[in-house]
Write a structure and sequence with these properties.
Blueprint lengths: L7 H12 L16 H16 L3 E4 L5 E5 L9 E6 L12 H16 L8 E6 L12 H6 L5 H5 L9 H7 L15 E7 L4 H4 L4 E7 L1 E10 L3 E2 L11 H18 L5 E3 L3 E4 L5 E2 L2 E10 L2 H22 L2 E10 L2 E2 L2 H13 L4 E6 L4 H5 L5 E6 L15 H19 L2
Parallel strand pairs: 3-4, 3-5, 5-16, 6-15
Antiparallel strand pairs: 1-2, 2-4, 6-14, 6-16, 7-12, 7-13, 8-11, 9-12, 10-12
Bound molecules: (2S)-amino(hydroxy)ethanoic acid and manganese (II) ion (3 copies).
The site of one manganese (II) ion has 4 residues, from loops.
Amino acid sequence: MSRRSIDPARLLRRISTLGEIGRDAEGRLVRLAASDSEKLGRDQFVAWLEEAGLEVAVDHIGNIFGIWNGAGGEEKPIMIGSHIDTVINAGIYDGCYGVLAGLEVIQTLKDEGFEPSRPIVVAAFTNEEGVRYAPDMMGSLVYSGGLDVAAALKTLGTDGTLLGDELARIGYAGTHAPGFMTPHAYVELHIEQGPVLEREGLSVGAVENLQGISWQRVTIDGDANHAGTTPISMRRDAGYAAARVIAFLRDRAKSSNTPTVATVGCIAFEPNAINVIPSRATFTVDLRDPDEDRLKEEEAALAAFLELLSAEEKVGISAERLARFEPVKFDSAIVRLIEAAAGDRGLACRRMTSGAGHDAQMIARIAPSAMIFVPSRSGISHNPKEFTTDVDLIAGANILLDVVCGLATG
Ligand code: HGY
Ligand code: MN
Ligand code: MN
Ligand code: MN
């Protein structure tokens, strides 16, 4: 039986083209949500959707949809999605690979005269990364009814802008209501961003669940004072207290035999001067665990430590929640479809948990969802060294093609 296949050259060409859009003066890839550089990426994606003859729709929070109505009529669509916004100094595959593979699958099926039993849609969700506006996965969270769109559009960014103003400024404050299509099924193809598939010599991950995520911003207030004249015993040192929090999180995660991970990704001191004891430290805490009860325990342990620290270091400490998502279990029937597709193509596959957050965890609130992973070299991501071989990229897109055909037949 001649097996369908995507057009490898077209997919690889688009990945590298999009990967060059939104580079800063130092050549770093930075397409933060609703920024001018992200607009360039959005415009390019919309141009490809139009070239493919798809209906383009944009909703109130800037989620972009390419819709192939095909023979499917009014049936609930199959949705293939991910994101094209990036972190700072990003790789070129995170999110973009899944969106462009989704477009590639639709274009391949269209070109071949495939008659789907339902519409097929490719989606690029707004602000999956959450770097400029928290929480992350915001566009798909709003789309799936987990966050009110008016509240989301009022989100204040790290640069003092409002998301809604920025989406309007870049021309992506769309007219469709978030959730205007409820998917029959949702599939997301993504690089693993971790070391498992490469370490085990596998080509495909059938992702069956995704760990819980807790984001907080912690503010510690002490007293600015002279770095030279102030005895240690008289200091209310916000910088030192912040360092103790980082050490606490690291030691706790290292000493436990659980998969809990903890990260302090952003930190700022005030007044941030070499010879002034910091009066204020502001930093973020990202906690994750596949088990909800353990994640709650980690949040409680941190809260208890902050209380103790406040008394010991005589500083004020407050914590603000930025995002909180429970672990998600994906749809086992779609997971089985992914495994069968990999088996049919002779590709080694295993079930796995996603360590990273993804739009699929939000759309799983409204539709049966699952994810397909391909290997990341050395497990690196959120880093320009992020890399996946062409062979793996093409294989993953063909698995997506098979799964979508399976869902769109009958
Ligand atoms: O944070 C995450 O895991 C995702 O990349 N937004
Ligand atoms: Mn991603
Ligand atoms: Mn990411
Ligand atoms: Mn993601």
